[in-house]
Design a protein that fits this description.
The complex is a heterodimer of chains A (242) and B (375). With 242 residues, chain A is α/β, with parallel strands linked by helices. Chain A contains seven helices and eleven strands. The model of chain A has no long low-confidence stretch (mean pLDDT 89). Chain B has two domains: 201 residues, no CATH class; 87 residues, Barwin-like endoglucanases (Beta Barrel). Classes of the chains: A alpha/beta (242), B alpha+beta (375).
Chain lengths: 242, 375
């Protein structure tokens, strides 16, 4: 479980262009469920996702990770709960690498290298042997119907394929939580439907999925467990689907 | 093991990264290689020539006595030999005959010399440089124009072999009679006088005694020759290095600009790497390998090219500046000699700054929050 208490994130603190992106958010995200952060552009969804995924630290407030998420965390742990906001960068990166897999709106694949290399990238700093890593990456790609594209350069891929490569990359370190930021923004209706199918499979595999989206295909999907609504950096409502 | 795998994976990615920006990196490597090549060429040349000088000096007499008239070297009378012989501590004295002969066909100055143990009249031994420039071989005839305009016909008996081509390349060993015939020097004179002494610590005293006995002479001690060689070539290589400092500076600016001016694409990539779980230190490690791959390979390429340039092509590119008067010298090949300490210095002056220049800006880019790629 991920628990956020009174989270605030201010950019350009103390400068004339100071901007509060997230303002006093308290939220619990259940494990093995699909949670959608819904809201218009600029509502603070993406910033909140970044904070949950240990990509940035909040200006104030606390984030606690419990259960499986704390595996391997040796710092700031009480029982099975780890408070992550005060962790040094090294530990934060380790948690990010181990516990979270990210799917980005712009896919954020690295151009010029192959699909396989892109998928293997997050595992490089762990120091895993090249061969088992390559086999795992190939298996994940083939599960996502990309076995014919292993050695293709990412810039040759269609939007749907690029996104599946992004999903494979998010899965390479076998994370507990998958975080997706506007994943259907660049996909047509059919591909968006396919994406939701993959998300359902991920949930079936025991992953916790958190999606930021303002696309009805996502938040109206029957596979969603909970919708959290945001506006102007605050929680403005929400509902439990299951 | 895990550490090794990590390095291997990161190097793997670094190399494919370099290949992605092929044109930019190749251009950089060409300039880099060129700078190392020029610096190393000057260095190799200066060192090798100094080494040659020391080889020459090993066999050279301890004192050479020249006669001066109006500050210029003149022929030394035979009578001086007898006078010097009488100075205490002098072991042996002999008169030397040597001179320069300009050969218009080769466009080069040859050194004519009469060997100490003499040579047969009408026959000569020549250096390999002469054989090359005159396209001659053993048994051929070489005619030299004498001071009267008549031709002195000489037969090439053999080629000189020596560990230093600088010594032997332009050398013609002739008989005393032929030498005197070519240059019109009477038997009363020698070019200069050489002597060996019993105790090398007495060199200065003996030199002074010669000067007292014959005030119109200039005794040259072996160390003086060494100093002259040193200053000539140090000055010349220094001159070239000053010119090269400009090129070096341009390279530093170029490298700094390339390395520090991370493109928007590169910055974005660093952001992506951080977002997918790379630490700042991993990104720096990658940039370190990138810098090392470029600078080390350019350094090695530059050094190897310089080695070929200096020792196989006789420093064709810098010949006029480095050799000075000796451009009139037949082509010679330097004996390969490398001073490891200088190579190391060059390494630290080129590879290290470049690697640092690549790391610093990446460190700045890598210390941003990884969520920047989401915004």
């Amino acid at each position: 479980m991920i628990e956020l208490s009174d989270i605030r994130k201010v950019f350009n603190c103390g400068k004339p262009n100071e901007f509060t992106a997230v303002d006093g958010v308290t939220l619990s995200v259940d494990s093995r469920k699909i949670t959608v952060l819904k809201g218009p552009s600029g509502s603070g969804k993406t910033t909140l996702l970044g904070l949950i995924g240990c990509m940035a630290r909040p200006t104030s407030g606390r984030i606690h990770l419990t259960g499986r998420l704390t595996q391997g965390v040796t710092f700031s742990v009480e029982g099975t709960t780890a408070e992550v906001t005060s962790l040094p960068e090294r530990f934060l990166t380790e948690i990010r690498r181990r516990a979270f897999g990210f799917i980005f709106q712009q896919f954020n694949l690295i151009k010029g290298i192959t699909v396989l290399e892109n998928v293997m990238l997050p595992a490089y700093p762990i120091g895993e042997g090249f061969k088992p890593l390559r086999e795992r990456a190939s298996r994940i790609l083939s599960d996502l119907n990309l076995s014919g594209k292993l050695f293709a350069k990412v810039e040759w891929l269609s939007g749907g394929e690029a996104q599946r490569v992004g999903i494979a990359r998010a899965l390479i370190n076998d994370p507990t939580v998958i975080i997706a930021d506007e994943p259907t923004a660049h996909l047509d209706t059919k591909l968006s439907g396919e994406f939701m199918g993959i998300v359902e499979r991920l949930k079936g595999d025991g992953k916790t999925v958190i999606i930021a989206s303002h696309d009805p295909i996502v938040f109206d999907s029957p596979i969603i467990d909970r919708v959290v609504e945001m506006r102007d950096g605050r929680l403005s409502g929400g509902y439990q689907r299951r | 093991m895990q550490w090794l795998e990590k390095q291997r994976n990161i190097i793997d990615f670094t190399l494919s990264s370099l290949l992605r920006r092929k044109t930019k990196n190749i251009a950089l490597m060409i300039v880099y290689t060129l700078v190392v090549f020029v610096l190393a060429s000057v260095m190799f040349f200066a060192e090798a020539i100094k080494k040659e000088a020391s080889i020459i000096l090993r066999g050279s007499p301890e004192i050479i006595v020249q006669r001066l008239v109006a500050g210029r070297q003149e022929l030394a009378p035979v009578g001086y030999i007898e006078g010097i012989k009488k100075i205490r501590g002098v072991q042996s004295v002999s008169g030397r005959l040597w001179g320069y002969y300009f050969e218009p066909v080769a466009g080069a100055n040859f050194t004519l010399m009469v060997p100490e143990d003499g040579s047969e009249k009408g026959q000569i031994e020549v250096g390999k440089g002469i054989l090359r420039s005159m396209r001659a071989s053993e048994g051929d005839i070489l005619s030299l124009k004498s001071y009267t305009g008549d031709w002195v016909v000489l037969k090439i008996k053999g080629a000189l072999s020596s560990e230093s081509e600088l010594v032997s390349s332009d050398l013609i060993l002739t008989s005393e009679e032929d030498f005197r015939n070519v240059f019109g020097i009477s038997k009363e004179y020698f070019t200069d006088i050489t002597l060996h002494v019993r105790n090398s610590r007495e060199l200065a005293t003996i030199a002074q005694k010669i000067k007292d006995l014959y005030p119109d002479t200039r005794p040259i001690v072996r160390d003086d020759i060494l100093r002259t060689y040193d200053s000539i070539f140090n000055w010349r290589s220094g001159l070239l290095l000053v010119i090269m400092a400009g090129a070096g500076l341009a390279f530093i600016i170029f490298a700094w600009d390339k390395a520090s001016g991370l493109s928007a694409e590169e910055k974005k990539e660093i952001g992506i790497l951080k977002a997918i779980g790379w630490e700042t230190s991993d990104v720096i490690l990658m940039k370190f390998w990138e810098g090392t791959a470029i600078s080390l390979s350019s350094f090695l390429a530059g050094i190897i090219l310089a080695y070929f340039h200096v020792f196989f092509t006789s420093s064709t590119l810098f010949e006029p500046v480095l050799k000075g008067w000796s451009v009139l010298y037949p082509k010679f090949r330097l004996t390969p000699f490398i001073d490891e300490a200088q190579v190391m210095t060059l390494f630290f002056l080129t590879v290290l700054p470049y690697t640092v220049a690549t790391i610093v800006p990446s460190w700045r880019a890598a210390s941003v929050d990884p969520d920047s790629v989401m915004r």
